[in-house]
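Researcher: Good morning. I'm working through a list of sequences from a screen, and I'd like to move beyond sequence-only analysis. For each chain I'm collecting a predicted structure so we can compare shapes side by side. This is the next one on the list. No need for commentary yet; just the structure.
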Amino acid sequence: MAGQHTITIKAGGSEKDYWKDLWLNRQLLWILSKRDISVRYKQTLLGVAWSVLRPLATMIVMVFVFSYLAKIKSDPGVPYPLMVLSGLTIWTFFSNTFTQISNSILINSNLVSKVYFPRLLMPLSSIAVGFVDFLITFGIFLLLTFFFRHPISWQIVFLPCFILLTFITSLGFGLFFAVLNVRFRDIGQLIPFLVQVGMYACPVAYSSTLAQGTWFEKYYNLNPLVGIIDGFRWCLLGDQAYFNPQSLYSTAVLSLIILILSLIYFRRKENTFVDHI
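Model: Good morning. Structure tokens for this chain:
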């Protein structure tokens, strides 16, 4: 029949064969992605409404703590809720995608032990859940811009670049931890802790202007999420939002290096997954 193909499993297959199999199994990627999205809210009382309530509740708490209690100022001319929600939108995309990818092999352990397919499909399918949540949070942000009468900047045309950088960064870190998570189950306990600490180590609820002129500024900018969050915020809020283009250089270089190394590490350990599940 038209559209059918046969995959032959053989020892010592080339790297080219692997990527060819990955492409031939793209329909499985679609099926796994749809399953991950539906399972996320299955048998929940509020369903997709959780994707609306979580960012709103987090934003309200952060505004209260950082703005009203800690008296931290936002960038001049930028309402504090918009500054927080813009950072929270892209951070949530990273954290959800990173967490889903890190757990993807263990979640699909029944498939790993029973049938052959390129294991990279499982981390890739996990990205769909994080992206759906991102779109919902982004929609909330757009609604709040009307409420605060703050126009969207023309720099929004650069937004896809920062979304792509977030995808690359989350995939790079996620693949590395996905391999470790199969071998060492303690990693599953470490991941939520890293996400929680990372949110405060990144400029989600505050502006990076706080790091300007400090002794740790150059180390702060080495964090790949700093350039991504500041750049994403700049795309939405315009020049009123602080953005240091130099931080983007380290972000792009580090993210690509981490992704390449993680892909190599994942491919080397891929055939051992079934031994530890």
